[in-house]
């Protein structure tokens, strides 16, 4: 009898040891897989029960017929998530998004199901992840984010032949909880604009711009003086990004800096995709491009915002401004000294900007709301002014379905300016007759 190499999909079951006079250790089943680089590959399973091995063999044959290949070795999900993040995700995602992925992987996915073998993942493990997140008191949004990140990582594992299926596709994703958005009404908007128009309020123009343009926090904090004309060029945004170690702490053959945080590493660098545009300002603050082309937009300047911004431009010309930003940080109070540190033109930290917004609402007697809720207010006012939805989407820099994007009137500054003028009219028309007019303060 001549020996032959088993073909793809053929299986063999044999006893170990083969000598039946010796005690049984286990039954083994092996299945032939497609070769790689001229090397023979097999998938092997073992059990002390022959019926179990035969059942496993039939399951392998079905998986091989469906997917065309099988992984010959498997790591834990935790090991794959770390490898996937370092080798795949960080080269694909913007730095801010990658930081969110890293946090979800470390805080939720690995602690909950990281010890499960990658090829042994079942839908119940995905449900375990959801329950673990809820047990920590986190909401549906966190569970949904972790579910989506796990799904993307398993999709790439499936592409590489590490798993035969993406188990996250076998069950429904967690549903995001309904959130009641806070929208400041026109009366609240008038109070904010009145305060913004006062000459003794240094950052008033920043709050007026948030309310009258619907621009995002980073878009306004990153606005440079040379991008302010009769329009606001919102093509960059200020972000706090995380530095990575440049000393390669995972390589035992390379010297390490001994610092825990990447920002303290002498060879630190920003890990980002090659097509990601960014400019370093200072510390962890960067100017980066918006995540989508829809965010690259020009917002026409209309009254009263035009006059308020022009006053800010005049003031900024007499202040230190090494980065050329329209708005820079406030004076810092020196510890144990009554005097204030002089302005140095540093960028405004987003966290301190949030604090200043809440302090502003308290000072004018307006209900508390997130800074991002100013965008919702702008959108609501645009709808109340009967502005067409394509114009609203362009002003706010939002992307929707391809059909909607197809008829958007991008670049029509006359329509955009008319829409923003309608919003300003809604606000200024509510100013009481005896109240100081906004234009008079500008």
Characterise this structure.
With 442 residues, the protein is of the alpha+beta class. The chain has 3 domains: 11-67, no CATH class; 77-170, DNA polymerase, domain 1 (Orthogonal Bundle), CATH 1.10.150; 186-241 and 284-441, Intergrase catalytic core (hpI Integrase, Chain A, Orthogonal Bundle), CATH 1.10.443.10. Helix content is 40%, strand content 11%. The protein is built from 15 helices and 8 strands. It has helices spanning 50-67, 77-87, 95-113, 123-135, 140-159, 186-196, 204-213, 217-221, 305-316, 350-363, 373-384, 389-396, 402-406, 413-428, 438-441, and strands at residues 11-16, 26-36, 39-47, 231-234, 237-240, 278-282, 285-288, 297-300. Strands 1-2-3 form a 3-stranded antiparallel sheet, covered by helices on one side. It has a 3-stranded antiparallel sheet with strand order 5-7-6. Strands 4-8 form a two-stranded antiparallel sheet. β2 and β3 (39-47) form a beta hairpin. α2 (77-87) packs antiparallel against α3 and α7 runs antiparallel to α9 (305-316). The radius of gyration is 30 Å and the shape is elongated. 29% of the residues are buried. Mean pLDDT is 80; it is low at 401-411 and 431-442.
């Amino acid at each position: 009898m001549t020996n032959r190499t088993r073909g793809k999909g053929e299986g063999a079951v044999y006893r170990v040891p083969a000598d039946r006079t010796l005690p049984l250790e286990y039954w083994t089943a092996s299945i032939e897989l497609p070769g790689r680089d001229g090397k023979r590959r097999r998938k092997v399973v073992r059990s002390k029960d022959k019926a179990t091995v035969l059942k496993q063999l039939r399951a392998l044959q079905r998986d091989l017929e469906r997917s065309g290949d099988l992984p010959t070795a498997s790591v834990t999900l935790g090991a794959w998530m770390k490898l996937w993040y370092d080798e795949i995700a960080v080269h694909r995602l913007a730095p801010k998004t990658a930081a969110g992925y890293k946090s979800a992987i470390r805080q939720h996915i690995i602690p909950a199901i990281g010890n499960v073998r990658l090829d042994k993942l079942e839908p119940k493990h995905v449900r375990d992840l959801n329950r673990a997140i809820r047990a920590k008191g986190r909401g549906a949004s966190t569970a949904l984010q972790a579910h989506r990140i796990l799904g993307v990582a398993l999709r790439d594992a499936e592409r590489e032949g590490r798993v035969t299926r993406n188990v996250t596709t076998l069950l429904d994703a967690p549903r995001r909880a309904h959130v009641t958005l806070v929208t400041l009404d026109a009366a609240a908007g008038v109070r904010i604009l009145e305060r913004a128009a006062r000459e003794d309020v240094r950052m008033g123009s920043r709050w007026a711009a948030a309310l009258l343009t619907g621009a995002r926090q980073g878009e306004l904090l990153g606005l440079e003086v040379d991008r302010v004309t009769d329009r606001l060029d919102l093509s960059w945004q200020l972000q706090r990004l995380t530095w990575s170690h440049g000393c390669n702490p995972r390589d035992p053959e390379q010297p390490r800096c001994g610092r825990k945080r990447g920002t303290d590493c002498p060879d630190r660098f920003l890990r980002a995709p090659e097509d990601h545009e960014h400019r370093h300002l200072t510390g962890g603050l960067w100017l980066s491009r918006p995540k989508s082309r829809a965010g690259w937009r020009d917002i026409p300047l209309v009254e009263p915002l035009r006059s308020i911004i022009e006053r800010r431009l005049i003031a900024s010309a007499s202040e230190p401004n090494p980065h050329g930003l329209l708005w820079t940080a406030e004076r810092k109070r020196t510890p144990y000294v009554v005097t204030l540190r002089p302005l140095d033109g540093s960028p405004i930290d987003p966290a301190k900007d949030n604090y200043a917004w809440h302090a502003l609402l308290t000072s004018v007697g307006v209900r508390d709301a997130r800074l991002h809720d100013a965008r919702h207010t702008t959108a609501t006012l645009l709808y109340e002014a009967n502005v067409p939805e394509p114009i609203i989407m362009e002003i706010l820099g939002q992307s929707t379905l391809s059909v909607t994007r197809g008829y958007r009137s991008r670049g029509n500054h006359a329509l955009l300016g008319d829409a923003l003028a309608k919003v300003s009219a809604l606000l200024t028309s509510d100013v009481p007759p005896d109240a100081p007019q906004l234009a008079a303060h500008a």
